[in-house]
């Protein structure tokens, strides 16, 4: 079981020149799992909140490709807020962490790199169920 303290900001490689930046994420080089799924959240209405679930197995890298938003992480004991607004940084969310996402800026894009394909069975969507799971 991982704690929120173990969900850290990772500096991604940035290739910078006068024409702009490139940030690269490569399996086994810059990310500690094989990426099996990529998706992104966009057109999120101002004021809406997403998330509200945990995953049993899934690991994720979260990147603010554009704009900003805040992840609230919860390991059943402690919570931690992570503000993301830099496409050269990723938030590494380990398995077994509850998350809420809030304060999306207008036009923001949230990129998610996942260690697995979509599976509803990997979700825990009930908070009491999550707490039970964390307490083992
Ligand atoms: P969910 O992961 O709950 O969204 P968020 O955490 O951003 O609020 O997913 C919302 C809906 O989309 C849910 O019905 C499941 C579906 N979905 C897929 O079908 N495939 C996917 O890869 C994802 C991420 C979601």
Please give the share of residues in helix: under 10%
Mean residue pLDDT: 97
Shape: globular
Strand order, largest beta sheet: 1-9-6-11-4
Number of helices: 1
Taking pLDDT < 50 over at least 5 consecutive residues as the criterion, the unreliable ranges are none
Which ligands does the model contain, each kind named once?
Answer: thymidine-5'-diphosphate
Structure class: mainly beta
CATH topology: Jelly Rolls
Strand content: 35-45%
Q: State the major sheet.
A: 5 strands, antiparallel
Q: Give the termini distance in whole angstroms.
A: 10 Å
Write structural notes for this entry.
The chain contains one helix and twelve strands, in the order E-E-E-E-E-E-E-E-E-E-E-E-H. Strands 1-9-6-11-4 form a five-stranded antiparallel beta sheet, with no helix packed on it. The chain has one domain: Sandwich (Jelly Rolls), CATH 2.60.120. It has 136 residues and is mostly beta strands. Bound molecules: thymidine-5'-diphosphate (TYD). Thymidine-5'-diphosphate is lined by residues 37, 39, 41, 50-51, 53, 118. Thymidine-5'-diphosphate binds next to strand 4 and strand 5.
Short description:
The chain is mainly β and 136 residues long. It contains one helix and twelve strands.
Chain-wise SSE layout:
Elements: E1 9-11, E2 14-17, E3 20-23, E4 37-41, E5 50-55, E6 60-66, E7 69-74, E8 79-84, E9 89-93, E10 98-102, E11 109-114, E12 123-124, H1 127-135
The protein binds thymidine-5'-diphosphate.
Thymidine-5'-diphosphate (TYD) binds at residues 37, 39, 41, 50-51, 53, 118.
Keywords:
1 helix, 5-stranded antiparallel sheet, 136 residues, mainly beta, globular, binds thymidine-5'-diphosphate, Jelly Rolls
């Amino acid at each position: 079981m991982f704690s929120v303290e173990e969900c850290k900001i990772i500096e991604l490689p940035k290739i910078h020149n006068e024409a702009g930046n490139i940030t690269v994420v490569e399996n086994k080089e810059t990310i500690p799992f094989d990426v099996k799924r990529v998706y992104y959240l966009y057109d999120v209405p101002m004021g809406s909140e997403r998330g509200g679930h945990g995953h049993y197995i899934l690991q994720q890298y979260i990147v603010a490709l554009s704009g900003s938003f805040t992840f609230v992480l919860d390991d059943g004991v402690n919570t931690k807020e992570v503000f993301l607004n830099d496409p050269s940084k990723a938030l590494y969310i380990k398995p077994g962490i509850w998350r809420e996402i809030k304060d999306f800026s207008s036009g923001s894009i949230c990129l998610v790199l996942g260690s697995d394909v979509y599976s509803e069975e990997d979700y825990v969507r009930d908070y009491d169920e999550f707490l039970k799971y964390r307490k083992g």
